Amino acid sequence: MTTPVQWARYFDAPRYPLRLPTLVNGIDAKRHRVAIVGGGPIGLTLALALAHYRIASLVLEADDSVCLGSRATCISRRSLEIFAQLRAEQAFLAKGLPWTGGRSFHRNTEVFRLQMPHDENQRFPPMINLQQCYTEQYLVDAVHAWPDLIEVRWSTQVTDARVQDNGVTLQVQTQQQPYAVDADWVVACDGARSRLRQALGLKFEGTQYEGRYVIADIELKSDYPTERRAWFDPPSNPGSTLLMHKQPDNIWRMDYQLRDDDDAEEAVVRDTVRSELDAIALVDAQALDRCDVQPRDLHRTSLSH
To answer: Is 46 left (phi over 0), alpha (psi -120 to 50) or beta?
Structure first.
C-alpha cells in the first residue's frame, strides 16, 4: 500500500477574507498608482520597497493565504540585505538556517566541495535555508505595518489586462463577482507562468531548459550540517540528479530529477522517497517521520541581453 501525495504544512497560516472595493459600474472606484499582480515573495517585497518611498500600491493575490511547502527555500545574502533595507530581516535571521558551503557527489563519491566567501565583517551569511511559506508570512506581517500605503486583496485572480493611453486596466475574478481595476503602473509578479505576461503577449527570450523533478519535504532528526548536497548519477536513479538541503524544524528538502521514462505518480509515493534516501546512505529509512511530496516541472530560461 502506497502513501498518497500530501502538501507540506509547517504552521497554521492565516486565511485572509475576500474584500471587494467600492465599485462604480463594475470598476474599482479608486484609481491606483501601482498594481502588483501576485502576492508571493517578489510582489510583497516590491510593495514594501514602494512604501518606503511613500508610493502606494495594490497587491492582487489569487490565493487566500501564503503558499504551501518549501518551494524557493534558499535565500541569498543579497536578498537578506534587501530585507534589511525594508526593516524586515530579523524574522528571517531568527528562523533561517545559515550555510556557507556544499558538497557534490558522483554516485556516492565526493568530487567537489563548495565554500562561499564569508568572514566576521559580513553582516549576513552567504545563504540561509527557509521554507517559502515562512518567507511569505514574514513579508505579509511586514506589509501589515503599512496599512495606508499597501493594500492586499486576497482571492482575487487577474484574468486579463488592457493597456490604455494613461495606464492599464486589469480584469479580475473573485468568488463573488468580477470587476476592473485601473492603475497607472502594473507589475507582473505572478510567477514563471505569469497570466499577466500571457495576457500582454510578453515572453522571455533566450535558451530554455526543461526537466521534471519531485520535491520531497521530509521530517527527520539528523546531526548532518546545514549545507547543500548534490548527487550526479545517484545510485538510486542513474542518469539523473538529486539535491538536498536542511531546513528549519528538522525538515529536509530533497529534489530529485525524473528521467523521461519515469512514472511521475510512482515517483511521489513515500516508499519511492525512502528508497532514494537509502540508496545515498543519508539516513535510515525508518527514521523518516513525515514525507510530504509534490511533482514539479522545472522551466529554466537563460535570458538574452
So the answer is: alpha
